[in-house]
Known about the structure:
Ribosomal_uS13-like_H2TH; N-terminal domain of MutM-like DNA repair proteins; disordered C terminus; Helicase, Ruva Protein, domain 3; FPG_cat; hydrolase; elongated; alpha+beta
Amino acid sequence: MPELPEVEALAQHLRERTVGRAVTRVEVAAISALKTFRPAPTELRGATVTGVARHGKWLDLAVDSPTAGTLHLVWHLARAGWLRWYDALPERPARPGRSPIALRVGFDDGTGFDLTEAGTRKRLAVHVVPDPADVPQIASLGVEPLSEEFTPERLGELLAARNQQVKGLLRDQGTIAGIGNAYSDEILLVARTSPFAPTRSYDAARTAALHEAIRAVLTEAVATASGRPAAELKDAKRRGMRVHGRTGEPCPGWDGTPCGDTVHEVSFADSSLQYCPTCQTGGRPLADRRMSRLLR
């Protein structure tokens, strides 16, 4: 799933290529992806792009329509969605069917993009709204972790608000916006903390270390993704991971010095997390429900 760094890079990519351009094509190929019906997507045709923003993991293309005023094409790529950019958009229209294309948008210079989604579980969400806050999931987003508002004190308040596993708090979009499964694994490695650590166990020193890890991991990832074409972002993300998706490989260490241990995994019904016992749990492997069932 694209997370804050990749979505920020996509916003930058679109901002550089679309602001000032007129929308000439809007073709909905997967009606299940469209979550609003008024204003209609056709209202975007003839509108001029005025800006591109990111809200957590949501992308927001703002336009000025001569007939409808300010509108926002807002979308969430979910787990299997992506943006495919074209310097020369195919002339053939996007048709409903077996194609992964959910939405096609074209501009007056012949460029454009498709929103695509692989697999059978369709979760990509597209909204056309007068205000991004009209999308409930955006209105309920938590603090942006790279904003000035995200201080160690603010993080401390969030940790203390209710007792839960720290991995869950980092992924809760209503608490901190933009962090998902992959970057929470990376943050917890750098912070040298267990993904299952209770949030109310954090004192001031541990909170400061976690805050520093959040800022450092995300800042580094945003810098790595910045300026890359959309087609390269997925591979760049994978290459940059220290532990996420690297089960069984040597741990590179929380500070870049290999610790001698290997990356371990805990599996769930539809996801998994990766961590290093030496760096994060005092050398103790965490219980994996999948292995526990096999050992009974």
